[in-house]
Amino acid sequence: MTRPILPAAELRHLEQEAMQAGISERELMERAGKALATASLRMFGPRDTLILCGKGNNGGDGYVAARHLAEAGASVRIAALGEPGTEAAKTARADWTGEVEALGEDTAEADLVIDCLFGTGLSRPIDEEVATPARRLLTAARRTVACDLPSGVEADSGEVLTDLGSFDLTLALGALKPAHRLAPAIHHCGRVASAGIGLGAQGDWHEIAAPALPALDPDGHKFDRGMVHCLSGAMPGAIALSAHAAARAGAGYVRVSTSRMIDGLPSSIVQTEDATALDDERIGCLLVGPGMGDIPPLLTVALTKTHPLVLDADALRHVGEPERLNGHDAILTPHEGEFVELFGDLEGSKADRALQAAAASQCIIVYKGADTLVAAPDGRLGFAPPAPASLATAGAGDVLAGIIAACRARGLDRFEAACAGVWIHGRAAEACKAPFIADDLVAAIAVVM
Predict the structure, then answer these.
(1) Residues 424, 401: contact at Cβ < 8 Å?
(2) Are 377 and 358 contacting, i.e. CB atoms less than 8 angstroms apart?
(3) What are the two backbone dihedrals, phi and then psi, of residue 176, each rounded to the nearest 5 degrees?
(4) What does 198-265 look like in DSSP terms, one character per residue?
(5) C-alpha to C-alpha distances, 153 to 54, 150, 178, 184, nearest whole angstrom
(6) Residue 257 above 90 pLDDT?
(7) How confident is the model over 8-49, as pLDDT tens digits?
């Protein structure tokens, strides 16, 4: 099931709508604080707990969580920045019957520390007189939990304005925010759980989840499962990885156009020198770019066909103006360098840039990295769940291109095919023992499928 991702302003708008519908701010805070306590208990059990509370509603969530944790048998202390500044937080503070100390150099350490200092409204670095003791306490704790977002993180861009360390668990309230899935913040959140708290969040942005792949027709044949046709270039090893990945990802027929036979490909993958093979109407997706090298005619030929396209690697360097792709049914898979070379140095967060690129090219953009995004011209945006750092290995992108091509050939629309490929790719990496090479990643696709 996909989880919605909303910018901070949209979450605040939903909160205002909820209050207009009769749900008080204090009730929303009660739901959030109870959810925070429940998540902490489920993950770590009742422990010696210290909650760091700010002056805003994030701190109010902490006071509520403290009450519920204490009722569950945990030993709870609160260290605060000062008196609450909102009416809901003041009420939550009044309902907490335990002591509240000032956060400072003398604050004693605890086994579990819950960060409720700053929430989605943070737009500047945290003062060091606050950051220093908070960092000390979080570093010393055996387990750490962040309420909504780690303090110091900007909600929409994923920028870390102040580094307080990495958390074991972050509980997203209302919906995930972009920062939960954008670098560098993604590396600070740990496991991200979510609590809806009754806001009914939904929209065009979501976390990419396990795909619903087309069921196999018991009366079908190999071409019903989709044909992927790959164009080989100067470095045939790369396209071999893509073709092999496409076959493992469920394409019923995989074929490679090549001027010389490629060693090491499974016998089931057809290699051909027939130039007319590209006119085959059964082709469900045409893949060009991996290992293409400096051979622009390969891209030109691909763009003269009407088949759905996946353009990767060297093909992206030869596109020229993104508008050249308007009207083509294409999925582009650039990493950061390829993205900038094709689309220029766009402004905004990675999410903003991905959507601008999709609009300019009228293509699906798989903006690769530690925080891969899938952007559509109509404004849909998929955020990849975390994948192992060991995925940064030569040939991994070629494997991803092959998986996406197989999903497209199997009948998924191009946005869903790109999202499916990204999810399968990440889970295949999880199935591999690190360190691994791209060939291992191809073999792991079968485990995921």
Answers:
(1) no
(2) yes
(3) -65, 150
(4) T-----SEEE-----PPPPPTT--GGGG-EEEEE--S-HHHHHHHHHHHHHTT-SEEEEE-SSPPTT-
(5) 15, 6, 11, 9
(6) yes
(7) 999 999 999 999 999 999 999 999 999 999 999 999 999 999
